[in-house]
Amino acid sequence: xxxxxxxxxxxxxxxxxxxxxxxxxxxxxxxxxxxxxxxxxxxxxxxxxxxxxxxxxxxxxxxxxxxxxxxxxxxxxxxxxxxxxxxxxxxxxxxxxxxxxxxxxxxxxxxxxxxxxxxxxxxxxxxxxxxxxxxxxxxxxxx
Length: 143
Known about the structure:
about 40% helix; globular; 5 strands; about 140 residues; Beta-Lactamase; five-stranded antiparallel beta sheet; alpha+beta
C-alpha cells in the first residue's frame, strides 16, 4: 500500500497522510480512518503490512470504536475538551483522535516506531486540525 496509494487519494485524505508523514517520517507505520460503519487504510508501511497479514484488522478497528464512548464520557467529565489518546506497545506508539462535525464522526489512528525522546503528539494534533479545517468532514469518511 504505502506511498503508491497516496497520490490517488482525494485531497483531504492525501493532506492528512502528508501531515502524519511530515510528523513521523520513516517512523510512520500506518494511518487508518474509521467511522461507525467501516474503516480504510490510508497508509501501511510494507513491513507492518506483512506483520498484520494474519490479523483480523476489523476486530482491531472495532476496539478503536470504543473511543467514541470514551470521548463522550470525557466531554461530560472534564472541564476541557478531549483531543487525543496515545498508547504504548512494544516497539511502537499508537495515536488516536476524532474528527467531528455535528453528528458526523470520523476516527483516525496511526502508529510510529518508538524513538528516544518520544514525540510531541500535541504538535501532531495541531497539524491534523489545520488539515481538517481546509476540508469538509465528508472528505475523511472511510470508503
